[in-house]
Amino acid sequence: MKADLIVGVQWGDEGKGKIVDMLAQKYDMVCRSQGGHNAGHTIWVDGVRYALHLIPSGVLNPEAINIIGNGVVLSPESIIKEMEQFENLEGKLYISDKAHLNLPHHALIDQAKERLKGDKAIGTTGKGIGPAYSDKINRVGFRVGELLDTVKLQNSILDYFEQNRAIFDVLEIDTPSADELVNLLNDYKTKLAPFITNTTNMVWDALDNNKKVLLEGAQGTLLDIDHGTYPYVTSSSTVSAGACTGLGINPKDIGKVTGIVKAYCTRVGNGPFPSEDLGEDGERLGKQGHEFGTTTGRARRCGWFDAVACRYSSRLNGCDDLSLMKLDVLDGFDEIKVCVAYILDGKEIDYMPSDLESVTPVYKSFKGWEKTEGIRNWDELPETAKIYVKALETLTKTKIGMISTSPERKDTILL
Ligand code: GDP
Ligand code: IMO
Ligand code: MG
């Protein structure tokens, strides 16, 4: 059986957690394939909030097996803390031995380099994601499987510290002593060893035995290392194709692709955002949408739906349909705007240029509505909300398969 895939099509935080949790009730396996604890996926079930960073959002389905694939950079500290929210996860959670370790020095390097960049900072989450992926690509990283032999790993890390001593000194980063390091690694090993395995075989077995597999994207398409707003991006392949390398499956293993998109747009961190609204409307979207980061608590920048960017993302990912999230956040606006084209060098364009820095948006206005919050049927939506949703389908050239009207699992319209 083919795996279904959920991918963020904006700048992250689209509401992937809610959809994966909802769908996970019908899946045997849920897999993360990229990113790390920079992700923050929120799930609300019966008034209880769960914030997940590394553990796949299938964890609240008692039947599903959760996989952290080789493409993830894993912070042992972060996942150990996250695991404490749940009862024994043995037999429910598996971590690829080929995933790379994101160790405490990676976060320190990330933060120090951001400080040095001053006003050119990317606005990273400071979680060490870039440095951990850099080490992997430089072929000097450490893999999760190496945790099983802590003496050997300790020596390799101490060698790495010495080889990079000049950099640590310049960045004023203290590295742990041999004793501190081995204690840390032994603690990681004790807590994580039962979960470490060859997940490639597990995913293949599931697919070959007709199990239902769901792939959970982290971040969003516009943060992709190749196709996003470089350099203001994250360090992994966030597009659907990234799930193949990040899990060890092939393109033919992927079935349905669903893009997750907010009914407006947000971004955390720096970088171009053509439809950002710096006035009252943007502020109101932030307030009504509770737009504060799940991972860092930072206020998210807010603006209008960008149909040009969404059409680009949908094509890049091969989205079969879109789940339109947070429609209720637009409740009460008299006028709702959608970016339908850009102006670049004085000319109107309808495609995403390679550099988004110097475009300005062209808007189309829609009439607002009073209330959609909590609605679970298409027929009950106000007429103006229906017009808005239909217009987004046309503009993005993608069908909308689901509409979400509150953070709760049940407040969803299936189309
Ligand atoms: P993710 O990173 O894509 O999983 O998204 P986040 O969890 O970072 O951010 C999405 C936020 O929107 C979370 O706080 C969700 O609880 C919330 N949310 C999801 N769907 C809806 C919705 O339809 N309406 C409202 N009001 N909030 C939603
Ligand atoms: P989820 O999975 C929103 C952003 C950061 C920063 C840039 C690079 O919850 O949607 P990094 O720490 O990855 O090097 O930061 O990427 N970013 C996210 N923004 N949602 C996320 O994840 C993000 N993960 C990273 O704010 O702009
Ligand atoms: Mg998030």
Strand content: 15-25%
Write out the strand line-up for the largest beta sheet, numbering strands in chain order.
9-7-5-2-10-1-11-15-19-20
Helix/strand class: alpha/beta
Spans where pLDDT lies below 50 across 5 or more residues: none
Largest sheet: 10 strands, mixed
What's the CATH first level of the largest domain?
Answer: Alpha Beta
Strand tally, please? 20
CATH fold annotation of the largest domain:
Adenylosuccinate Synthetase, Chain A, domain 3
Tally of helical segments: 12
Mean pLDDT score, rounded? 97
* Intertermini distance: 24 Å
Radius of gyration: 21 Å
Helix content: 25-40%
CATH superfamily of the largest domain: Adenylosuccinate Synthetase, subunit A, domain 3
Indicate the overall shape.
Answer: globular
Number of domains: 2
Instruction: Name the hetero compounds present.
Output: guanosine-5'-diphosphate, 6-O-phosphoryl inosine monophosphate, magnesium ion
What is the correct CATH architecture of the largest domain?
Answer: Alpha-Beta Complex
Written description of the protein model:
- By secondary structure, the protein is of the alpha/beta class.
- It has two domains: 3-76 and 200-414, Alpha-Beta Complex (Adenylosuccinate Synthetase, Chain A, domain 3); 100-194, Adenylosuccinate Synthetase, subunit A, domain 2 (Orthogonal Bundle), CATH 1.10.300.10.
- The chain contains twelve helices and 20 strands.
- A hairpin with a 2-residue loop joins strand 3 and strand 4.
- Helix 3 (104-117) crosses helix 4 (129-137) and helix 5 crosses helix 7 (178-192).
- The longest helix is centred in the middle third of the chain and has 15 residues, at 178-192.
- It is globular.
